From TrEMBL:
Residues 1-19 form the signal peptide. It is a multi-pass membrane protein. PANTHER family: IRON TRANSPORTER FTH1, PLASMA MEMBRANE IRON PERMEASE. Keywords: Membrane, Signal, Transmembrane, Transmembrane helix. This is High-affinity iron transporter. It comes from the Bacteria. The chain crosses the membrane at residues 525-547, 559-581, 632-659, 671-691, 726-746.
Length: 762
């Protein structure tokens, strides 16, 4: 299954002018020996021919290997000779061992040549040697590392010195070879347990060969004596497997940085927690027996579990308690085996069983991992998002539209509750573009629209490609170091931005309730606002345990709450204009005052309307703020976020106090006009953002303006470049202004009627 992962590099290395193709002959040696190992039990002559083919391929580049690493070159030649003898005698075990020895000796010689070329600053030769490398096994959750390639390009451009380039190359390449060594040891353990002697012999030889690649790093960290003991233990495989694993514990040829350790630890918990979610979607109970109903979902569960196993393998040797690391690795492997296709075919586990096992593992992980490892890493979320987006494309290609929509919502839930908090502050245009791609944008068409119209696979791939590019840009933002001060600043900006809109609404509406006769109507608005604060706090704690469930419908919930808020605001605003503003100037005010204070059902309706307005004004912003702050807590802890939140709230309160003080100094006529203008402005922002949300979720059509607008205008003013948004914003302002003038007209008409009536009576 893609042992080399050289395919992406072969064409490049062969196509470069003047480049020496070292990768193709090396791959020919490996593939020919692998085929010979399969043929030897059936046709010795064909096996011998294939070994001869490998010898011929090696002869074309033997001079380069002899120059770079004479010892490795001799080992390749000796291994090929041994392979030829084994093929002719039909010795399957010896042939597999010889093939593994030849391949790892080739890799060692190539790595020696790579290091020498980088140290001398010869980027062209280094590219040739780098092409003959082996990567760690890739999966949807583990991308191939391109640090070595980037370092060589920087070396060639003169922007990176040889010493720095060599450090990057070593970290990248040796990390891949250590991952291969770990894979070989795991396969050896499995093969030995199942009695596969030939496969076990090949894996033992591979492990021994990979160790020779890593041996200089092992000597540097543990000394010559320890390396010599490990040489003896590797030579005794598979009987000495336990001793090898014990000696290898805690060693990393390319030590992980603190950030990389945290990222892998986050991947372990994030990926593992998603296993029972996906498994439960694909396995149902039928008469008490578990039955696979959606193989795609079961495959997703296996993918996430495989990602967790891979991440754990990288950091388990670094655990302070070595026994805990080995126990975790064993328990993860046991769960992995129970979800294998073979085990699932015999008898699938029930979803409840898988959930219980995963909860136990998560508890063990949290107990074993140091506290500094358990800070969530946003990069792990992006890995999950990428996997879910791949699942969207795969499900759409198979015509499984419900599964495609589920995967899309899962991906968006992570984005909304994880990454948007930071990109909304630093790059609002990128946030808007991301939302359009996930929902109902155009050019390219958003995923929600594609799923709804069951578009062909080509359109999904185009959107997926654009998403991949966008996620790379996001990764650059998330990849910067997160200082506590920066997180606190982000939190403060988010709280201030979201809270300002709510405060302005309340300040505008309550400013018209200053007279003693109607001051009591402020109380329901304050009670509604207080209830919203309580509901926001409850939402915070609920999201701690069910973030993905709530997050996946975040935009739709926000849309519903926003529509309610606008509707209530329009009703209450109309009531203000027609019952409060203009009655103040009428001679019959005392009669209306009596109705307001003793109006029975009318008063109750007004009371509840004001309470609902107070609630929706605060909770609409509180819900979104809660989602955003969750990710910041995971990135830097609660202390920094709470500090920034406190500053943001203080600023919001300061604005509110200033507004009320300003109102107190205004005469009623100016207050009426000022409040009306403020309501119109705030309502326009609410309408603009609500229309945008409704368009995102597909509840309103999208007709773009012939020009674009900065995304920051959308965040602060609700201005989005669509005809629907602009026209409805204008309409909302017209409604406010029209209601005011309608109230004034009614006031004037009634005054004239009273004047005429008074004249008649006189």
């Amino acid at each position: 299954m893609g042992r080399l992962r050289l395919a992406a590099l072969l064409a490049l290395s062969a196509g470069l002018a003047g480049a020496t193709d070292l990768a193709t002959p090396a791959e020919k040696v490996r593939s020919s020996l692998a085929e010979a190992g399969l043929e030897v039990a059936f046709d010795r002559a064909e096996a011998a021919r294939l070994v001869g083919q490998a010898q011929g391929a090696y002869q074309t580049v033997e001079g380069e290997w002899q120059t770079a690493d004479p010892a490795a070159a001799r080992e390749v030649r000796a291994a090929l000779t041994a392979a030829d003898a084994a093929a002719r005698t039909g010795n399957e075990i010896a042939l597999n061992r010889a093939g593994a020895a030849a391949w790892t000796a080739l890799l060692r010689g190539a790595y020696t040549g790579l290091e020498a070329s980088v140290q001398s600053g010869n980027a062209d030769a280094a590219r040739d040697w780098l092409a003959a490398r082996e990567f760690r096994v890739a999966s949807p959750l583990t991308r191939l590392n391109a640090d070595a390639t980037g370092a060589l390009e920087a070396l060639a451009a003169g922007t990176l010195k040889p010493d720095a380039a060599l450090k990057a190359v070593r970290s990248d390449v040796l990390d891949g070879y250590q991952a291969r060594l770990n894979d070989a040891l795991r396969e050896l353990e499995t093969s030995q347990a199942r009695g596969f002697r030939t496969l076990a012999a090949g894996q033992a030889a591979l492990a021994q060969g990979y160790f020779q690649l890593l041996r200089p790093a092992y000597v540097a960290q543990n000394g010559d004596a320890a390396a010599a003991r490990l040489d003896t233990q590797f030579a005794g495989l598979p009987q000495t497997l336990g001793a090898v694993q014990a000696s290898f514990a805690g060693f990393r040829a390319a030590p992980l940085s603190e950030r990389e350790v945290t990222a892998r630890a986050s991947q372990v918990t994030r990926f593992l927690s998603l296993v029972p979610v996906e498994y439960a979607r694909g396995v149902k109970l039928d008469g008490g027996r578990a039955v696979v109903t959606q193989e795609v979902e079961v495959g997703e569960a296996r993918t996430f579990l495989g990602g967790a196993v891979s991440a754990l393998a990288d950091i388990a040797p670094l655990l302070p308690d070595g026994d805990a690391g080995r126990t975790l690795s064993s328990d993860f492997a046991a769960l992995n085996a129970s979800l294998s296709p073979q085990a699932m075919k015999a008898q699938p586990l029930t979803p409840a069983t898988v959930e219980t096992q995963v909860k136990t593992l998560l508890g063990d992980v949290r107990a074993a991992f140091p506290a500094e490892w358990q800070k969530a890493d946003a990069g792990a979320d992006l890995d999950v998002v990428r996997t879910q987006l791949d699942a969207v494309v795969a499900a759409a290609g198979a015509g499984e539209w419900a599964a495609a929509e589920t995967a899309r919502l899962d991906a968006y839930a992570l984005l909304e509750s994880g990454t948007e908090a930071r990109i909304a502050v630093f790059n609002p245009e990128l946030k808007a573009h991301l939302e359009n791609l996930m929902w109902n944008g155009t050019a390219p068409t958003g995923l929600a629209t594609l799923i709804k119209k069951q578009a062909p696979a080509g359109e999904f791939k185009a959107t997926r490609a654009e998403l991949q590019s966008t996620l790379k840009e996001i990764a650059k933002i998330l990849g910067t170091e997160v200082a506590p001060a920066a997180v606190a600043t982000n939190a403060g900006i988010i709280v201030f931005r979201e809270g300002l809109e709510a405060v302005l609404i309340l300040a505008a509406l309550m400013g018209s309730l200053r007279r003693d006769s109607v001051r009591h109507l402020r109380r329901p608005m304050w009670l509604g606002a207080a209830a919203a604060f309580g509901a926001t706090a409850v939402t915070w704690f609920v999201m701690q345990g069910a973030l993905s469930l709530l997050g996946r419908y975040g935009e739709k919930l926000e849309a519903v709450v926003s529509v309610i808020a606008i509707g209530v605001l329009l009703l209450i605003m109309n009531w203000f204009f027609h019952q409060v503003y203009w009655t103040d100037r009428m001679a019959s005010f005392q009669k209306h005052k009596h109705e307001l204070t003793t109006g029975g059902n009318v008063l109750k309706a007004q009371w509840w309307g004001l309470a609902v307005l107070g609630f929706t004004s605060i909770y609409r912003e509180g819900f979104e703020t809660t989602l955003f702050l969750q990710s910041l807590v995971l990135q830097a802890g609660a202390a920094s976020v709470l500090g920034g939140t406190a500053v943001g709230l203080a600023l919001v309160i300061g604005v509110g106090v200033a507004v009320f003080k300003w109102q107190a100094k205004l005469p009623m006529k100016k207050l009426l006009i000022w409040t009306g203008v403020l309501i119109a402005a705030v309502l326009a922002v609410m309408v603009g953002n609500t229309v945008h949300t409704l368009q995102l979720v597909g509840w309103l059509p999208v007709h773009p303006l012939p020009f674009t607008l900065p995304a920051s205008l959308g965040l602060w003013l609700g201005l989005h470049a669509t005809w629907e948004g602009v026209l409805l914003q204008v309409g909302s302002v017209v409604a406010v202004v029209g209601s005011f003038f309608a109230a004034e007209a009614l006031k004037t008409r009634e005054l004239r009627q009273r004047q005429r009536g008074a004249a008649v009576h006189s």
